[in-house]
Design brief:
Blueprint: H1 2-13, H2 22-42, H3 53-73, H4 77-87, H5 95-140, H6 149-161, H7 166-177, H8 184-211, H9 218-242, H10 248-257, H11 264-272, H12 276-305
Helix pairs in contact: 1-8, 2-7, 2-8, 3-4, 3-5, 3-9, 3-10, 4-5, 4-9, 4-11, 5-6, 5-7, 5-10, 9-10, 9-12, 10-12, 11-12
Length: 306
Amino acid sequence: MILCIGAGFLAARLGWVRAAAIKDLSNLVFLLLTPALLFRTMGAVRVQELDFQPVALYFLAAGLIFSVSIGLCGFSTRSAARGLANMFSNTVMIGVPLVGLVHGQQGLVTLFTLVSLHALILLTAATVVFELAEARESQQGGKSAAQPMWRTVLQAVRNGIVHPVPLPILAGLLFAQTGLVLPEVVDRPLQVMGQALGPMALLLVGITLAYTKVGRNLRDAVGISLVKNLVHPLLLLALAWAFGMNGLPVAVMFTAAALPVGANVFLFTQRYGVMQEEVSASIAVSTALALITVPLMLVLAQRLLG
């Protein structure tokens, strides 16, 4: 994993991949390779085989991180952005290749169970908080809200479902329940594209790091990164111990919690016009820091979770 990220970083530094190509490479990863892997993996899984308890544990840890972040910083769009960055993981671009490498096919099924709900639940909840905070700030500034909150929340739910990540998971699950098998002419290309996701995504991480400027936002970025990369997984581990949970599903959730800040957080900061530079820097810093913290967390998980 580290070598792939490093190779992408070096390729960008040498000018082999220009900054303008990042968007096209991202589209290739998220719109083609990711759906292929998600659909093919979940297309062989029965709903009754899924275990949602570890997923609930993950959301509990994420919710606590988000709530405490807002409580400490005060109720505002800025604190909501910081809270979201503190708990929203990069579960696809880094999580998928990492979990596949460490935990195998069964680990991916557990991760995809989380991924199918990750953005939908966390981003919808964050939308409610952002809208409430923005409405409060608008009232204090003598301005009025742009649109009713219910409409914004419904739009967030729709965007969370009609998305290149949850949609192929749900489609794959529906296909699996029919008992049908994909014909070889379809299954084989999906397999090839799915296998390409891991290296392509990690190379893209390295390329993105090479073009991201941290600058004067280093202090905020380090603070967010330490909470995301260390506090989040350690809190999940403590909750797992408190509830007497262990095994592979919990190990996968622990791995997901230890991942760096996800790119969706930056999209939120763009939408609400707050902490854009700080969050962009935190994505880069937490990703670089993850090269050290993730292996440490994986060793800890192996010892404590079996």
